[in-house]
Amino acid sequence: MARNRSFEERYVAGWTSGALDGNPSIPGSSAFLMRYRYTGVHGWTRQIGVANAQTEGYGVAVDAHDNAFLVGLTQPSGRNTKRVCQAPPAPPEETSPAANTTAGES
């Protein structure tokens, strides 16, 4: 879930295997993005996908211009895939000259 600061709108992302809010049903799974007002009133639903494939919406982000971006995955049905999430490696520690001196040295 994300919100835009200009209009106090909330965005929700996810996926479904059926039709939502009058959008056509897509064979397989499809990702969706929904917008709500801060009052809880539903604004719209966008549903995207590829026929006979698995499309999943994992998250949403809103930029400084109030554009919503859906983050997700599309893969062919029946394909055995492994999803791995890993943080990038930490940068090597830097040592300063002061850290390399021993007590009593100047």
Q: Could you describe the 3D structure shown?
A:
- Strand 3 and strand 4 form a beta hairpin.
- Strands 1, 2, 3, 4, 5 and 6 form a 6-stranded mixed β-sheet that branches.
- By secondary structure, the chain is mainly beta.
- 0% of the residues lie in helices and 44% in strands.
**In whole angstroms, how far apart are the ends?**
55 Å
Reported for the largest beta sheet, the result is:
6 strands, mixed
- Strand proportion, as a percent range, falls in 35-45%
Quaternary status: single chain
- The helix/strand series, from N terminus to C terminus, equals EEEEEE
| SS class | mainly beta
Low-confidence segments, given as residue ranges, are: 81-88, 95-103
- Roughly what percent helix? under 10%
Shape: elongated
| Rounded mean pLDDT score | 77
Number of strands: 6
**Radius of gyration over C-alpha positions, nearest whole angstrom:** 22 Å
Q: What's the total helix number?
A: 0
Features:
106 residues; 44% strand; mainly beta
Topology record:
Layout: E1 2-4, E2 9-16, E3 28-37, E4 42-48, E5 53-62, E6 68-76
Parallel strand pairs: 3-5
Antiparallel strand pairs: 1-2, 2-3, 3-4, 5-6
Provide a concise account of the structure shown.
The protein is mainly beta and 106 residues long. The protein is built from no helices and six strands.
